[in-house]
Amino acid sequence: MKNRITALFGIDYPLIQAGMIWCSGWELASAVSNAGGLGIIGSGSMYPEILEEQVLKCKAASDKPFAVNLPMLYPDIEKHIETIIKHKVPIVFTSAGNPKTWTAHLKSHGIIVVHVVSSVKFALKAQDAGVDAVVAEGFEAGGHNGRDETTTLVLIPKVAKEITIPLIAAGGIGTGRQMLAAMALGADAVQIGSRFVATPESSAHQNFKNVVVNAQEGDTQLTLKELTPVRLVKNEFYQQLEKAYENCATTEELMQILGRGRAKKGMFEGDLVDGELEIGQVASLIDEIIPAAEVVKEIMTEYQLARQELQTEKYSFE
Questions:
Q1: Most buried among 19, 84, 272, 294, using CB within 10 Å?
Q2: Which CATH superfamily is domain 4-204 in?
Q3: What is the spatial distance between Cα 281 and Cα 94, in angstroms, rounded to a whole number?
Q4: How far apart are CA 72 and CA 69, in angstroms?
Q5: Measured in whole angstroms, how far is the alpha carbon of residue 238 from the centre of its chain?
Q6: How many Å is the Cα radius of gyration of the chain?
């Protein structure tokens, strides 16, 4: 399958695995890349020496292109940049910050740069900063999110209309039919996170994977918009936040409740009570843990079948 994104990244399918904190290590990234998509190492939860180890292991496990997700707010970002350049990581996805900060520097070393946005405004800013492509993420997505709560169904055609560089759709996508819908809206590819959490290669704790496959409609909620918006499973920690909101908690009080290390506690260590459990709305469509390569195959097979169905008499208006 050839289009602007497969040509840009040198991959077989326009399917990207999101670089999720605590879930996206070298095992998941290399498995997705080996299956024909683009795997991403999520560096936001890694110390510099850990990222270097992960990059080396990913290169040893796959001769296919892979990427590193680089949150701009990472406190030791210069060291991550050094590792990426030193080991010739071919693609970097930046997020949570100003793309102008590092884009030119990364591109001067031959690195393809993609930036994650949640609005047309920031998509245009990313394009002006010189990135090679953007990921437009609707509010259905898990983890950190935009404040405007623009759905993927609305966001993708709006961004596609305004930019000229390749567009990757994200948020609420986990099946082949959803991928086809995103492409019909103007995307060149899709980025999928939640579906890849529920794989053996994901570094998420088994407890968290079990929560994902058991999630039902309405089990997640976007919250903490006063700090950094994040979509969470409604566990006991989430209920604690809700009570704080009912009591008109200040931003400082919310920060105190959140504390430090909540995401690690929940997603990596498996604390389902006090941990922060970040996952997208699409979790309600996920009901089994299967290898990452099977996820890629399943999505691409369903995508092709859905395309064929749309060309049959069943959907003909002639």
A1: 19
A2: Aldolase class I (3.20.20.70)
A3: 23
A4: 10
A5: 21
A6: 19
Report pLDDT digits (tens) over 134-190.
999 999 998 877 778 899 999 999 999 999 999 999 999 999 999 999 999 999 999
Nearby residues of 231 by Cβ (< 8 Å), 6 or more positions away: 139, 140, 141, 142, 143, 145, 220, 221, 222, 223, 278, 279, 280, 281
Helix (H, G, I), strand (E, B) or coil at 315: helix
Residue whose pair of structure tokens reads 């993609």 in the numeric block: 114
Beta bridge partners of 113: 92
Phi-psi region of 224 (alpha: psi -120 to 50; beta: other; left: phi over 0): left
Residue-wise pLDDT tens digits, 34-54: 999 999 999 998 999 999 999
Phi, psi of 140, deg, nearest 5? -70, -20
What is the C-alpha to C-alpha distance for residues 228 and 232, in angstroms, rounded to an integer? 12
Tokens, residue 268: 């990596």
Which amino acid would we find at residue 73? L
Cβ atoms 83, 100 nearer than 8 A: no
Instruction: Give the Cα separation of 222 and 89 in Å (integer).
Output: 33
CB 280 within 8 A of CB 211: no
Residue extents of the structural domains in the chain: 4-204, 206-281
C-alpha separations of 201 from 64, 99, 129, 251, 257 in Å: 17, 30, 34, 37, 32
Question: For the residues of 100-165, what is the DSSP string, one character each?
Answer: GGTHHHHHTTT-EEEEEESSHHHHHHHHHTT-SEEEEE-TTSSEE--SS---HHHHHHHHHHH--S
